[in-house]
Amino acid sequence: MRKSYRKMLGLALAPTLAVLVACGGGAAAPTATRLAPQPSPTTAPRATAAATPTSAPARVVPTGQLNVGMRGTGVGLDPHFQAQCHYATWYTRIFEGLTNRAPSGKIEPALATSWDFAPDGKSVTWKLRKGVKFHNGDDFTASDVLWTIERGRTHPSPYLYRTQLDRVSKTTAVDDYTVRMDLGAYFFELPDGWMDVFFGMVPEKYTKSLANPWNDLQRQPVGTGPYKFVELKTNDYFTIEANESYWGMVSKVKTFKTVSVPDATTRVTMLKTGQMDIVEYVPPQMLDDVKKMPNVTLELIKALDTLILMPVTAQPANLAMKDKRVRQALWYAQDVDTMVDKLWRGSAIKANDLIAPGFVGHNDKITPHPYDPAKAKKLLAEAGFAGGLKLRGAYSSGTTAITDEWMEATRLYWADVGIDMKWEKLEGAAMSELTPRKYQGYDMYVSNSRNIGYDPIRDLTFWIHSKGGQSSHANPEWDKMIDPISLIPDPAARLKAIVDAYAVLVGEEVSVLPVFHPLYTVAYRNDKIKEFPMTQGWSVYPRNLNYIVPR
Amino acid sequence: MQRYLLGRLVQSIFTILFVLLVVFVIVRLKGDPAAVMLGENRDPETYAAVRRSLHLDDPIHVQFGAFLGKVFRGDLGYSWYQRRPALEVMLERFPATLQLAGAAFFFSLLLAIPLGVVAAIKRDTIYDRGLKIFALLGQAMPTFWVGLLLIVFVAGYLGLLPAGGRGGPSHLILPAIALGWFPAAAIARLTRSAMLDVLDSDFIKMARVKGVPEQMVIWKHAVKNAAIPVVTLMGLQIAGLLSGAVVTEQVFAWPGVGWITIQSIFGRDFPVVQAAVILLAAIHIAANLVVDIVYVYLDPRVRYLRR
After folding, report:
1. Which pLDDT tens digit goes with each residue over A450-459?
2. Mean pLDDT for chain B?
3. Three-class secondary structure of residue A527 per DSSP
4. B-chain residues near A83 (CB < 8 A)
5. Is residue A208 within 8 Å of A222, Cβ to Cβ?
6. Do A87 and A234 touch, CB atoms closer than 8 A?
7. ipTM reported for the complex, 2 dp
8. Phi and psi at residue A242, in whole multiples of 5°?
9. What DSSP state is assigned to residue A139?
10. A215 contacts in B (CB within 8 Å)?
């Protein structure tokens, strides 16, 4: 009882003073809140030739302007100048890929109407959509696809998809609307997954006509997407306008002005006063305030994120963390349900897997280890740490709105089973500098896994394989489990192998300790918006904007 | 006096050079700038090209020489993320910061001088104690905290003013109050103490004995003489307001230099950070120089002492 009280006191005292003043206390009736309807989890494999057409174009006359308050407004709009995946939030409103991802993560046709993999999996032939025009009036043809691939490969900037492009040995325009792509070696990630909205098609003639074809698209973007670029003031505002001749569903709202409002209190107050019509990322401490606001609807939407604790096992000094029983003990020793309730105030889901529920690759059969301090103590004793264990962890406060509180709660929970956890808060850049050194000097770090790839082999490799970009492991046994999966050409068998691997590597080995899937929180004014049919991962899926019905 | 001014000018130039040296060293202490810019998954050719463009393969003194040459030609680097000159990024934001700092300065003067004078005249009364509380709050409360209070109560609860963003004059009021309260408190306290010193001096007593009206004693003789240290402080506060707007801009979503600097720090856009540091340091040094020059003209004692 006493320990429980101490934990609750820790949780209660953790929020910052600013938030205490900014937010009122007390619970509110959740009448204005709804968890957005979710599609069923997608575990079905994709067909090698996508067949399902997108919804028929609905011609409407877009009207009005909506102001959207977001944490930031990106830094640029060139699909080939994207060092980090979150930039895609911006350029994907203007550019489109050959494929698109449904909110569930399932691949569907976009600028390609269908595609066929050769039986040996060494090439893919794309049939392009006819009659599509870029915003400047140029026709979209096969030469634009070739140019986009060539530009992406040679653009002198950090580019997320360069590794994938390097595996394309040759691209050929069979005719104006057919492209064949030869894959030199077997693909680590299947191309219909990454040729999606993140791989925006760039107009060849227009880009080559720019004074600097590498730089100028960043500030004068022209794509085929549902919105046309109007204006960008970096880190200030970004304005787009509905593309009325769009081949798909045309936006019902004429103009979206996205304003960068980094402070959550300011953002929410701007919604309350009508300066903003939609705001994103309402922090847990402010949810009750927003629920109480008249004329405002709060949406909690399943997002792509999984907040994880990453054990570091790569270093010789990580003796304790190399022991599976210690990693399991850490999972048993934290009361995730209470943290979801008290810290997140219901705006997160208890995690069991690296891939969030509802997204391709999620394994709902992994059972999260329940809160069981006695079992955690037993496991630690079996591992030889009955007398206690000292651990050192690193985190960045920018990971979530409540990372400090989460870390303090975790420290208190683990202290109950004899683990002396010392968390160090680092600036984001300092955290990323630890990555190439495989987090030397630490036993654990905190991160956010954002499942942006359709093919979940990417996440499996990225976090757990010794060569993965964010991995803190060097375990040959785990690598042996992952390596053969990328050689499975059949998508259904491949997906099953991935899901099974997650069951072992996450559920049993605890190579990653998934804790929460934070929900994406969006609030909007009812006097400006009539319908806002939300789907999963709103900020990443720009097509969701198309569904907004203004008043 | 000319010698004094020349000396101050030379000091300012050396200070600027020292700032440039510190900026140059710090960027390199962070690690290989090319590697930091390009991240882990860089390809060797791009990496080599960036190293060449930044003169990173040259000896360190050559690098510093090239860096100085560029700075003095107005080339403060190229924003890695915005794909345009860093100075252009800064100058685009500068009017917003200047507007905010100007409004905050106006607010602080409007409030601080009358408060300080009245507190000195009505010493140990409720007015004086009121000033002390105002000054204590202004100097004790962090700017972001004042900003949040104003946003929550004035904008959110009372609905009187916009909560954030840059727009018409009404958008300026809350951020100007948040930013201006701290210097207002300092100026009010200094005005009060300077006034007390002057009011206690012989020439003021003589003026009163001679029957000069009290209003004239206060505003013509006392305030004028008490203004010398206050003007010095005000000059320094202008520079402080320009660089101190960083937090206020972030809280109020005010698109100024401070905000872009913070974003560039998080985004590792070092050329922009470097440009911001140089620009703000130059403003500070220039403001100090101007204050020194004004001080010479305001206070004859300085002129005589420097002869």
Report:
1. 776 667 787 8
2. 83
3. coil
4. 39, 81
5. no
6. no
7. 0.78
8. -60, 135
9. B
10. 83-84
What pLDDT does residue A545 have? 74
CB-based contact A265 B148, cutoff 8 Å: yes
Q: How many domains does chain B have?
A: 2
Q: For residue A389, what pLDDT band results from cuts at 50, 70 and 90? A: very high
Are residues B106 and B253 both part of a single domain?
A: yes
Task: Provide residues of B within 8 Å CB-CB of chain A.
Answer: 31, 38-43, 46, 49, 81-84, 89, 144-145, 148-149, 151-152, 155-156, 159, 162-165, 250-253, 255, 259-260, 263, 266-268
The answer to whether residues B261 and B287 belong to one domain is yes
Q: Are A71 and A204 in contact (CB under 8 A)?
A: no
Task: Let me know whether B178 and B263 are in one domain.
Answer: yes
Chain B touched by A235 (CB under 8 Å): yes
Tens-place pLDDT, residues A154-163: 776 656 666 6
Taking only the tens place, the pLDDT of each residue in A485-533 is 877 877 788 889 998 999 999 999 999 999 999 998 889 999 999 988 7
Q: Which of B61, B86, B111 delimits the end of a domain?
A: B86
Q: Is A523 exposed, middle or buried (0-12, 13-18, 19+ CB in 10 A)?
A: buried
Residues of chain B in contact with residue A78, where contact means CB-CB under 8 angstroms, are 83
What pTM did the predictor assign?
0.80
The Cα–Cα gap between B259 and A238 comes to: 16
Within this chain, do residues B141 and B262 fall inside the same structural domain, yes or no? yes
- Residues B80, B227 within the same domain: no
Q: Identify the domain containing residue B162 by its residue range.
A: 87-305
A76–chain B Cβ distance below 8 A for any pair: yes
The answer to whether residues B100 and B248 belong to one domain is yes
pLDDT value, residue A395: 93
Partner B contacted by A294 (CB < 8 A): no
**Type of residue at A134:** F
A510: left (phi over 0), alpha (psi -120 to 50) or beta: left
Domain at B113, CATH number: 1.10.3720.10
pLDDT tens for B222-270 read 888 888 788 778 877 887 788 778 889 989 999 998 888 887 877 767 7
Residues B74 and B215 in one domain: no
pLDDT at A497: 92
Domain boundary among B44, B65, B86: B86
Let me know whether B50 and B94 are in one domain.
no
As given in the structure block, the two tokens for residue A376 are 């955690």
User: Looking at chain A, which residue has its C-alpha nearest residue B79?
Assistant: A75
pLDDT of residue A161: 67
